[in-house]
């Protein structure tokens, strides 16, 4: 049962202030014991849990024998209803409940097109009653086949934006949701249009995209009208036409909802007239943070999601706000999040955890105030021995304010520490935040300070901050990492002779580029699944660097590419590598193909210093088993211990404080 705090007064969560990362007056504690690597790799039994619309079924993903399984269970009996496997060559991307008896999930796979590596995506329909799985599009027919832009309210059909080849703009196809369902094309492609938007009745009403430095927007008022060019905006023009993402166009009307930048520079939720292109009303805008996304219910805004230092939510229904506040109060000093709920609110999944606690997933039934534990996310990990990341900020060389997070090892003086700079993936529209991170906690437990800078182009900080990152991969975005190091050294936290860069995906690229571009700065680098040839990666997947951002950001990067990527690709500089580098990759990576690893490894064979390598067979972009994750952590900690060793752990407070 929940504590008696349920039902208390609602309070909106206040954003965490950007504060100093250290306090010299704080007494030095005893260092915690060294935590076994296997505990950081000891993942929960399942992930990505969701409830069916009626709340009667619980779906989730789990690993079995190295492969992903999709599970459906009955909530009341907790008995398994169906277990589905996917092709081992596929990577599971996402899934959604379409109705109580239908599920849709997306998978991706690597392939080739005219001799080039290409990433293909497609959809699979699951009939919950019979357990029948039906592919909706063939593997080789389309490059991008999982961009669903509309679900019919009764679950009878979907609209999907389809990119047939890497040289085509997307069209829109209607697919009946049944085995061998009828497929029709409802919108032909248009040059420059990457993003199609349908209204809540399933009518394609708008298309937009960047082409040759201009944003083009096409619109029509109803299904019978012709799409007309209503906006053509140059990149340099200051106009509100540049700054919105369509959330919902209301059927039978020219009005709807958009995410757009306001006078404060913050992205908020607004009511908008698509025909006249006028902002009519601000529904919700946070004074400090961009709204990331909006949840809809019956075509109307239900919740606005944003990231302060942690993930936050504003519910528009006062009763739901009150319920959420009561959960936060009852569960104590943790982040509380509702990842899924039944349509009528009778059941919901509740996550409780924070940056120093991996957390627990509960099932909550409000009517009876019943809270049941479903899973612990790191069941063997002693969270009381973990470090507490703190917000920080610094000023980059051009005056831009960069925010980030610093995690200091416990029981050690914050002075002259070995430093790990850990850039996030993405890079556009993604950001680090105060949330639990195995790798950060592992390195802090081993005695390293870990700094996660949200370099320019990161999400959540407004349009102007994103613009600072445009065309700056390997350039000013990399400068921000160098400036993060300089900040930590100036503050006395880091030893300038003991700084390494560690990252995955784009972060792996940034780590490699750090020691190639500025070997005088960095002692070493470690890359998991890093991009080594930016040009080839963009041909493989045109959205490689922008999948996490707003649609308008994705379309812009997709339409314009990344400026002069060849000169800032590690491949072109591999032969001059002269700093220790841990180069690691999985052979079945579909996001950043294994060929990226192979090319770079071969190119470094004549370099002054060859990289230390780690290849994990049959592994993808992220870790599919705890054994594979442990293998990476063991390689990483061993590599750092050799090339950037931490100080010996203090035995007592007195010893730690001794000069």
From TrEMBL:
<keyword id="KW-0645">Protease</keyword>
<dbReference type="InterPro" id="IPR011042">
    <property type="entry name" value="6-blade_b-propeller_TolB-like"/>
</dbReference>
<keyword id="KW-0031">Aminopeptidase</keyword>
<dbReference type="InterPro" id="IPR029058">
    <property type="entry name" value="AB_hydrolase_fold"/>
</dbReference>
<dbReference type="GO" id="GO:0004252">
    <property type="term" value="F:serine-type endopeptidase activity"/>
</dbReference>
<protein>
    <submittedName>
        <fullName>Alpha/beta fold hydrolase</fullName>
    </submittedName>
</protein>
<dbReference type="GO" id="GO:0004177">
    <property type="term" value="F:aminopeptidase activity"/>
</dbReference>
<keyword id="KW-0378">Hydrolase</keyword>
<dbReference type="InterPro" id="IPR001375">
    <property type="entry name" value="Peptidase_S9_cat"/>
</dbReference>
<dbReference type="Pfam" id="PF00326">
    <property type="entry name" value="Peptidase_S9"/>
</dbReference>
<dbReference type="GO" id="GO:0006508">
    <property type="term" value="P:proteolysis"/>
</dbReference>
<feature type="domain" description="Peptidase S9 prolyl oligopeptidase catalytic">
    <location>
        <begin position="437"/>
        <end position="643"/>
    </location>
</feature>
């Amino acid at each position: 049962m929940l504590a008696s705090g349920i039902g208390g007064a609602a309070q909106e969560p206040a954003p965490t202030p950007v504060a100093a990362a250290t306090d010299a007056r704080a007494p030095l504690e005893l260092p915690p014991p060294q935590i076994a690597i296997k505990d950081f790799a000891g993942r929960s039994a399942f992930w990505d849990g969701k409830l069916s619309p009626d709340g009667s079924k619980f779906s989730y993903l789990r690993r079995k024998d190295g492969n992903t399984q999709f599970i459906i269970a009955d909530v009341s009996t907790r008995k398994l209803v169906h277990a589905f496997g996917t092709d081992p060559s596929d990577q599971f991307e996402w899934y959604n409940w379409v109705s109580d008896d239908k599920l849709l999930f997306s998978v991706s796979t690597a392939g080739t097109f005219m001799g080039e590596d290409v990433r293909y995506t497609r959809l699979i329909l699951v009939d919950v009653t019979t357990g029948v799985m039906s592919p909706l599009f063939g593997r080789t027919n389309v490059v991008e086949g999982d961009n669903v832009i509309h679900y019919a309210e009764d679950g009878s059909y979907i609209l999907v934006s389809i990119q047939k080849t890497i040289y085509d703009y997307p069209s829109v196809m209607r697919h009946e949701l049944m085995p061998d369902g009828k497929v029709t094309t409802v919108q032909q492609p248009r040059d420059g249009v990457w993003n199609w938007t349908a209204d809540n009745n399933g009518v394609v009403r708008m298309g937009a995209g960047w082409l040759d430095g201009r944003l083009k927007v096409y619109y029509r008022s109803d299904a019978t009208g012709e799409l007309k060019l209503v906006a053509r905006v140059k990149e340099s023009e200051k106009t509100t036409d540049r700054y919105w993402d369509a959330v919902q166009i209301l059927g039978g009307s020219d009005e709807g909802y958009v995410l757009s930048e306001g006078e404060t520079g913050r992205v908020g939720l607004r009511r908008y007239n698509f025909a006249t292109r006028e902002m009519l009303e601000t529904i919700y805008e946070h004074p400090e943070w961009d709204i990331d996304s909006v949840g809809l219910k019956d075509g109307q805004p239900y919740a606005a999601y944003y990231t302060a230092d942690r993930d936050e939510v504003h519910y528009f229904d006062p009763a739901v706000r009150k319920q959420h506040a009561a959960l936060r109060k009852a569960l104590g000093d943790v982040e509380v999040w509702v990842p899924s709920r039944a349509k009528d609110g009778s059941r919901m999944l509740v996550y409780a955890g924070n940056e120093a606690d991996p957390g627990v997933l509960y099932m909550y039934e409000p009517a009876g105030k019943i809270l049941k534990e479903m899973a612990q996310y790191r069941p063997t990990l002693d969270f009381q021995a973990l470090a507490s990341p703190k917000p920080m900020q610094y000023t980059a060389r051009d005056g831009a304010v960069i925010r980030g997070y610093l995690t200091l090892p416990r029981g050690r003086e914050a002075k002259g520490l070995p430093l790990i700079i850990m850039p996030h993936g993405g890079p556009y529209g993604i950001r680090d935040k105060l949330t639990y991170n195995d790798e950060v906690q592992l390195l802090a437990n081993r005695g390293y300070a870990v700094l996660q800078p949200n370099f320019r182009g990161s999400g959540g900080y407004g349009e102007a901050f994103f613009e600072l990152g445009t065309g700056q991969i390997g350039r000013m975005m990399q400068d921000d990492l160098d400036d993060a190091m300089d900040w930590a050294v100036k503050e006395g936290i880091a030893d300038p002779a003991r700084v390494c860069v560690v990252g995955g995906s784009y972060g792996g690229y940034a780590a490699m580029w750090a020691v190639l571009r500025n070997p005088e700065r960095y002692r070493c680098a470690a890359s998991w699944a890093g991009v080594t040839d930016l040009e080839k990666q963009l041909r493989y997947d045109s959205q490689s660097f922008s999948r996490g951002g707003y649609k308008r950001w994705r379309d812009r990067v997709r339409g314009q590419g990344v400026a002069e990527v060849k000169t800032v690709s590690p491949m072109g500089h591999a032969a001059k590598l002269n700093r220790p580098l841990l180069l690691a990759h999985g052979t079945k990576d579909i996001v950043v193909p294994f060929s990226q690893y192979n090319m770079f490894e071969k190119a470094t064979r004549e370099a002054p210093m060859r990289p230390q390598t780690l290849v994990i067979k049959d592994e993808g972009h992220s870790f599919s088993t705890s054994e594979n994750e442990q293998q990476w952590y063991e390689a990483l900690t061993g590599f750092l211990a050799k090339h950037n060793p931490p100080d010996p752990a203090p035995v007592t407070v007195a010893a730690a404080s001794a000069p």
